Structure formats: structure tokens, C-alpha cells
Amino acid sequence: MREYQLGEFEEIVLLTVAILHEDAYGVSIKQEIETRLNRKVSVSALQTALRRLESKGYLKSNFGEATAIRGGKRKRYFKVTKAGKSALDYTKETRMSLWSAIPNVTYEYARA
Amino acid sequence: MNTQEPNARPSPPSWSTRFLAWFIKEDYYEDVQGDLEEEFQLIAKGGRVYKARKWYSWQIVKLFKPSMIKRIKPNDSIEKETTMFKNYLKIGLRNLWKYKSSTVINIIGLSTGLAAFVLISLFVKDEYSYDRHFENADEIYRVTVKNYTLDGDISRQWAFASAGHAKRLKEDYSDITHAVRFFPWAFPDIIIGDQKFPGEPVIFAGDDVFDIFSFKFIVGNPETAFTDLYSLVLTEETAVKLYGTDWRDQDIVGSQLKLAGRGQEAPFKVTGVMENMPDQQHFHFDYLAPIRFIEMIFGEDASNNVGGNYNWLTYVKIPSNTDVPALTKTVNDEFWEKYIGQLTRGSASDFYDFEFQPMLDIHLTSNLEGEYETNGSIQQVYIFSVVGLLLLLVACVNYMNIATSHYSRRMKEVGVRKVIGAFKTALIKQFLTESTLITVISLPLCVLLILWALPYLNNFMEKTIVFNPFAQLGLMGSLFLLLLGVGLIAGLYPAIFLSKVNLVQALKGEQSMNASKWNFRSWLVAFQYTVTIALIFAIAVIESQMEFIRNSNPGYNRDQVLSVRISNVSNRETFKNELLANPNIEKASYSSRIPTGRLADSMGSNYFIGDSAVATGFRLPFISVDKDFLNTYEIELVAGENFRDGMEIVFQRDSSGNFLTAPGNYIINETAAKALGYENPVDVVGTVIAYGPSQGRIIGVMKDFHFESMHSPIVPMLIMYRDRYRRISLKLNTNDLRSTLDFIESTYADFDKENPINYRFLDDLFNDQYQQEERLSTMIKVFAVIAIMIGCLGLIGMVGFIIETKLKEIGIRKVLGASTQSIWMMVSNRFLVLVGIAFLIALPISYYLMNGWLDEFVYRTNIGVFIIILPVLLAVLLTLLAISFQTMKATRVNPVECLKDE
Fold it and tell me: Cβ–Cβ of A26/B68 closer than 8 Å?
């Protein structure tokens, strides 16, 4: 089975692109993350993550429409690919299996 | 009013955007910038434009990271260039290796030519650097004195002035701020404790000396060095001589020593040590002492006279804003009247005026009477500069020539490169790279050659020129640039030419390029021939003039004549007789001066027409001789008779010190007889003249001879029998020189117990007079031979190339039955035409120049037909030799060999 490697921020970006579905481009992804997770995201970090995900094949992109507010520049819309979906599923499953493996004792321990 | 117009929106900082566009990957730029701008507008909406701009720029700065920055891709221009450059280098090196002989010729020619050029430049630079190290060097002038004849012509100009000049000039003219005079007195012995240093050249100088010349002191202070009358300033060299190499540790300032000379002794004190005087200076002094000491010894009068006795080297300082010609005129108008006018002595040789000679001009242009040291010659510098430039040109042309012919071998390569798709610029770059390659390789060789040759040059020209490639970076830099320039220029012609060539033509091969017979290369060869012919011509002219001088008869015998200085010989008559007792010594004669010396002594003279005395209108110098002088030097008398016993002149003074008129007998030369107005020398015999404090008859006329060198014409002169002897001339007749010299030395030692013997052979002295010309001619010969060799190398290369391109033609001709001879003729013809053209260009130019050089000699050879033809003959001979050698190789080859390919 192929390894799906996702960094924490990459996972968030990938999920956000999935949430936004047809409307995922630079600004909307950034604002979505900032509002949902209440954290500051720099354009640089976001772009780096997006391009990495794209080069890993989890995202694909194509140019969309240009607007006046963008100074006539086109938007780049991102979409989650099948591989991206598998990666998300894989990550979720591994997390879930880990969650389910936690014995109850641990909670008592933590409480003390 | 609607302020929300789209174009009224605030815009992000444009320089940030430009920065982003510059670094970010092209396909990221559009959407990333769009995103940034969109968000910028969102932030700026609330009027927070400043914050938005800050945010925008900051985001871009953060984007500047490796994953976002454009990749420098392999097909980018820099990498493409370096790859291609590596390829050019490789191809270039392979070609150098393939054509080894032309590579070697090229490198040798170029580095030798350049090395010679650099050597000459160093020499010229050194010549121009004389005296420039003094502070305010342009404000220092030497006072020179001009003597006139009655006709107003300058008869002599002296590098020295009279004792009283410096002081009076300084006192009377405010423009002359400082004045100093130097006087070497008696070469005293220096005595330190019980150590004695005999005959040290102590120079006495006026108090202004350190104000005018910025001599650098190692210890001591120039301002107080001459405060005390008995002060002595040393140089580093003499400090070592007197006190040893550890003089610095001895605290010698203030130490006592004694000067002893002429039976007197005086205590002196060392007050300072100067740095050694640099070689690039027109005088060198070893010791300086205050001239007040001399004044004390000579008395006020002798150190103050303003007429004659030009023995005082005098310098003045005139501020740079002064009109020196005007000042000179004022001084000359006033000085004579003020100080001498009233003392009319009525002789032409007494009148003089001054010329202030800029110190910076002395070394190169001054050749006056009694120069303190031998100066350089501007003529020599010019000639060297021309030869140096010619060498450089020949080396470059030679290089271009070989390079060009070399490239035309590569027409096919150019064709193939073009077919593959090389741009014109790529081809040009390729050839320029290759042509600079050789010049760069030549640089180290050139430096080595300079380092090797410089000691010889220094030795020969008595120079101390330094060349250090690691220290003189400027020089090395310009040398490198020069080489690079040569490479570029040499490469430019073939590069442009080849890159322009028609593709089909190029692929057909080189024959098409040689279609026109008179191309650029032919002119280069013609140029080389021109320079070669001109240089051979110049050498021939110089050599024939030197030969003319060497063989010309100066009018006296100089063979086996020895001249001995007699500074302190007692009992001269006995000395002479004892010498003559040796059968190997044929004749002996005392005199004040000897031929090859200078006619520096003269007195006022009058000649009598009837009873009235007339001042002679020309300078009539004299020497004092004994009755054997004419006989010893084998100088003929053309009229009258020689001196006899009892004809000796003795000048006498009366009780108050004035001279009495002594009876005299004189012999003059033919020129003097003519100057006195007697065409036939017999008529002058018996006439009465007054000479200095004597009066008497001219008893004889001697044949003209060259007392001074042949640079100057024979001047009137007079000899008298008078005991003021400084030398004895001995005519030897022996095969056993060694034992005769031993005999002379031991006899001398018996008569002068103090001084060592000092003698010279007259033919050595004679040759010394032409040392400068000898040097010049040797140097020019060396450099010209280098130039000619380089030219020949080029020629051999050219011939080889032409034959190579004609190999097929030669092959076909041979197949059709041509003889070796006719093939040889075919190749030679073209070169002989070039030699002819070069001859026509070279001859008028070099004839004009060399004729000018010869005109500097009063006695000169003529440029004969042989000298004109010789260079052409040599050029033709060299060409034919080169051609023969190469043709031999070509014609020996079996025609099948060269015809079988293609």
C-alpha cells in the first residue's frame, strides 16, 4: 500500500479545499482556514502547501475567471483529486484506528 | 461624486509587485499576485491603506523562498554560454595542438615582440623620471652661462656659473627665492681617529641647498644641518663606508672627523645622514659640507667673482607662477651693466649672459660644457620609442597574419557549424576566444623573457630598472590588456570575415577564399616587409657611420699612446728621461690636456695689424704643452717651426700681484689661421698676437686635428710651451705591453709616493667619446634584429600556409609535368612583388629619418647605393630561403598523396 504523507498544515489545506468544493482558490481557502481555525495564515505558507499538494498529485488546478478587484488577474481554482481523497481517507483511518486503540486507563492516568 | 471608481482604488506598492514578478516562477505569478491584490483590496477597504500596503509587501517578502523562486534552467543563457565557451576553448586548444608549428611561431613572435616593447617602455619611462622625485621639481632651475663671439654667436654654454652668481641673483631679484652653488674642492682625505679615507668627493654647498632640494634625511635635520661651519652631511652609502654597516647603532650625528687636503686639516662634525641619491637624478653627491668653509679658505674675493671661472654648479628656485623668460631677460639686461660693464677687458670671450635651465629638462636635453654627469639623450629616447612601437606593430601584424591564414583553413568547419545552426555571433565569439587564447598563453612567457633580459639591459645601459610582475600590478594589468587587445583585434578580422562567408562557398572549401589575390593579408605582409627593410636600412646607416668614425683619422696618432696623470710627480724632467730610457717607450710629452679631452681653457687675445691691436672675434682656447707634443702625437706642421728650448712662457706677476706681459711663442691650427684672415698658413707665421698676459709671435701652424670629438667641428686653437702640465703622454712601441706597463708603474711609484698611478690608452679614450652612439647602435641592432626575426617567423608561416593551400595545384602541375623550378617561381612571384612595394614605401621614409640622424654629426658618411640595395637584397634572400625550404617539402611529395582525397 502506498504511503500517504501529509503534514499538519497540508492536511488542513487539503480538507479546506474539499470543504469549499467548487470555490477553492487562494483567497477563499485562506479566509476559510482563518475563520474556521482562528489562526493567521500567510500567503507564502498557503501557496507552498498548495503547490506541494499539487506536485504530490492530491490537488489539481486550473485557471478561472478574472475580476476587477484582482487587478484583472485570473483565479486559480483547486480541486481535490482521487489521490487526494484517498490521502484524506487514509489519514482519517489511521487516526481513527489510533483513537480506538487508546485504552480507558489512559484517561484515568491523565486525570491524576 | 462617486469616489468608488474602479481606478480610484488604492493600488499595492508597485516595487513589491515588480519584485514578485522578478523572482516568482512564471506560472505562479498570475494567480498569486491576483490573490494578493484581492486580499490587499479587502484590507484596504476600511481606509487602512497603509496597513494593507505593509501587509502586501511583507507577504511578498515571505514568498521569497526556494520553492517559489524561478529555477535557473539548463537552457538558460548563462549556462548555455559557459557550455559553448568550454566548447570554443576545447576546439581552440585542439587547433593549437594540431598546427603546432604555427602555434609556436605565434607564441614566440608575440611574446618576444611584447617583451621587447615592454623593456623599451621601461627604459623610456625611466629616462623620463629623472629628478621628478624632488619636491617642487618644476620650480628648480640651473643657472647656465652663455659665452658669445664678437659676431654675437654663442661660442660656449656652460653648465656651471661663476662663484658670485648665486648670491647676487638671489639678492637682486625677489622672484629668485633661493639660490645655491656647489663646489667640489680638492677631494680631501677624511680622517676618523687613526683611520684614513683618501680623496673623498666632498661637495661644498650653499646654505639654501636643503630649501631647494628635498634630500631625505635618515638622521639629522636639514634645517640645522649647516648651522655650524664645520658640518658634514653623509649619505647612507658613505655612512656605511666610514662607520660600517652598523652605523645606525653608533649615534654618529655629532661625531668628529677631520678633512685633510693640500697640507691643511680641519675638524668637522657629522650633522646628518641622507638617503642615497636615487639613480634617476642628474647629479650624485656623497658628502655635503657648507660652502662657507670654502669662502673662508679662498677668501672673500675668489668666492665672489662674476666673470669666468665657471666652476660653480648653481641652482635657483623660482616660484612656478613666475614668467621665467621675462625674468631671464631682465637679469640679462641688468646684470652685466651692474657688475661687469665697467670692467671692460675688451675680449669677446668675457661677455656672457644667463639662461635658467629647468631642472626637469636637464637629463634628457642638456649637453652643455662640463655637465656634471653624462646625461641621457632625447634623440635616443625618440629612436627607442619608434623602434619599440615598430616592434609591437610587427609582433601584432605577424600574429594577425598567421591567425588569419590559420582560420581560412577552417572554412569547412564554419560551413558545417552554420548548417547545424550556429549564429553569426556564435561564430564571432568562437574565433575571438581562440585568438585571445594564444595571447593569454604568451603572457607568462613574455614576463619570463622580460625578467631574463632586464639584467642585460640594465648592465648595458648602466641603469637600475626594476620589473617585478607581482608588485607592479598596474604594469601587469596593462600588459594583460594589451595582449587581450591584440588578440581581439587579430581575431576580429577573421571572425567577421568568416562569419559572413556564404554557406555554399564555405562548404566548397578554402579555394574560394583565396580567389582574390590582393586581400588584407597581402597588405599585412607588405607592411612587415616595409618595417623589415626600413630597420635593416637603419642598421646599415648607423653601422656605416660608426665604421666611418672608427676608421676616420682624427689627425693625430692614437695607436699605442698612453696618457698618465701626473698629479704630484716631482722632478718632471728626470721622470720623463727615465721613462724614455726604456727602449719600448719611443716618445714622451707633457701637456695640460690631451686630444679626446675638451678645449675648456681660454684667455682673451688680440692680434696686431701693424702696431694696432684688434680683439680676436672668436674664442681661441689653448692647451699648454712641451716641445715634444706635436712629435708624440704625430701632428704635422704645415708652416713655420716647432717649439725649441728656451721658448717656454712663464707668466710673472709684479709686486702688487698683477701679471706682467711675458714674451711668448705660439703655434695655432689651420682653422685659427683662417679665422684670423690668412688663407695661406705660411702668411700667418711671424705675426704678433697677445694672449692673456703674454705677447709674441706665431711661430708655426699645425695641421687641423680633432682635439674634441667628431660631434663638434674643429675650432681654432692655440698651443704654447708652458709648464702647466697635468698629464704625460707616452708613445709606446712594443709587443710586450705588460712589462712596459710594469716599468711605467714602478717608475711612477718612485716619483710619486702618495698617489696611485692613473693611466688610460688614447684609443680607449677616443672610443669613449662615441660610447653613446655605440650603445645606441648596439641597442637598436638588438631590437631591430628581434623585429626582423619576428618578421621572418611570420614569413615562414605565411609561405608554409600558402603552399599548403596550393598543394593540390602543385600536385596537378607536377602531374602535368611542371618542374620544381617553375613551381618555385610561381610561389615566389607574389612575395617578390610585395617586397618591391615595401621597398618603395620604406625607402623614402627611412632615408629621410636616417639622413636627419646623420646630420647631427659634423663629420658624416654618405648613404651609398649599397646601403640602399642591401635591405632589399636581404629581404629577397630571406623570402627565397623561406620559400625554398617550404617548396622543397611540397614538391618532394608524391602528387598522388595530395590529390587522392576529395
Answer: no
* Interface touch B59/A44, C-beta < 8 Å: yes
Cα(B886)–Cα(B510) distance, rounded to whole angstroms? 20
Quickly tell me which residue has 611542371 as its cell: B818
Residues in chain B: 902
* Residue B203 β-bridge partners: B184, B288
* Architecture of the domain spanning A8-111: Orthogonal Bundle (1.10)
In angstroms, rounded to a whole number, what is the distance separating the alpha carbons of residues A26 and A50? 9
Which candidate in A50, A56, A63, A73 is best for mutational testing of the B interface (most B CBs within 10 A)? Answer: A73
Asked if residue B371 lies in contact with residue B160, where contact means CB atoms within 8 angstroms, the answer is no
pLDDT < 70 regions, chain A: 1-2, 105-112
Which of B11, B38, B65 shows the shortest C-beta gap to A70? B38
Torsion of CA B775, B776, B779, B784, to 10 degrees: -150
- pLDDT(B345) > 50: no
Grid coordinates in use for B479? 600588459
> Do residue B41 and residue A69 have CB atoms under 8 angstroms apart?
yes
How large is the average pLDDT for residues B332-359?
A: 70
The average confidence (pLDDT) of chain B is 82
Report pLDDT digits (tens) over B868-891: 888 888 888 888 887 887 777 777
Determine the pLDDT at residue B534: 87
Give B685's contacts (C-beta < 8 A, 6+ positions apart).
B639, B640, B698, B699, B700, B701
Spatial CB neighbours of A71, under 8 Å, sequence gap ≥ 6:
B11, B33, B34, B37
CA distance B15 to chain A (A): 16
Q: Hey, is the C-beta of A73 within 8 angstroms of any chain B C-beta?
A: yes
pLDDT for position A12: 92
> Phi and psi of B218, rounded to 5°?
-85, -50
Exposure class string for B721-735: b at 16+ Cβ within 10 A, else e? bbebbebbbbbbebe
**Distance, in angstroms, between B76 CA and closest chain A CA?**
23
> Does the beta carbon of B218 lie under 8 angstroms from any beta carbon of chain A?
no
Host H or E run for residue B545: helix B520-551
Evaluate whether B237 touches B225 at the Cβ level (below 8 Å): no
Rounded to 5, what percent of chain B is helix, strand, coil? 50, 15, 30
In chain B, % of residues over pLDDT 90: 6
Question: How would residue B350 be classed by pLDDT, with cut points 50, 70 and 90?
Answer: low
Three-class secondary structure of residue B881 per DSSP:
helix
Which of A43, A67, A76 lies at the smallest CB-CB distance from B36?
A43
DSSP-derived secondary structure for B289-345: EETHHHHHHHHHHHTT--SS---BEEEEE--TTS-HHHHHHHHHHHHIIIIITTS--
Domain spans in chain A, listed from the N-terminal domain onward? 8-111
pLDDT in tens, B777-792: 888 888 888 888 888 7
The pLDDT tens digits of the residues spanning B474-494 come to: 888 888 888 888 788 777 777
Burial of B26 (0-12, 13-18, 19+ CB in 10 A): exposed
pLDDT 10s digits, B511-528? 544 544 556 777 888 888
- Please tell me the distance from the alpha carbon of residue B861 to that of residue B543, in angstroms, as a whole number: 10
Predicted local confidence at residue B77, as pLDDT: 67
pLDDT tens digits, one per residue of B362-389: 888 887 777 777 777 787 788 888 888 8
Residue A14 confidence (pLDDT): 92
* Interface check B7 vs A, CB under 8 A: no
pLDDT at residue A30, rounded to an integer:
92
The alpha carbon of residue A66 is apart from the nearest alpha carbon of chain B, in Å, by: 8
Chain B interface includes A107 (CB < 8 A): no
